[in-house]
Amino acid sequence: MHPEDIYADIGQRALIVSVIVSIPLLGATLIVGILISIFQAVTSIQEMTLTFIPKILVVAAVLYFLGPWMGQILISFSEEVLGNLPAFIG
Description:
Structural class: mainly alpha
């Protein structure tokens, strides 16, 4: 296997891992943002700061509950890359 193929594979897997780790946070904030937008449209409350606090709380909750899972994915990917480091150099 050529070094370029190895580097491309590492880059591809890094992008996949970053997408997997970020989907819960982005999905939760998207859902909360849509719900708040619907609430603002129904009640005619157009306060711009209304969206920040619920999104911050949802991100904190997602990190609290899914943080260990996210960390384990990142740690296993890092261990795999660092464990194969001699093969990448040589």
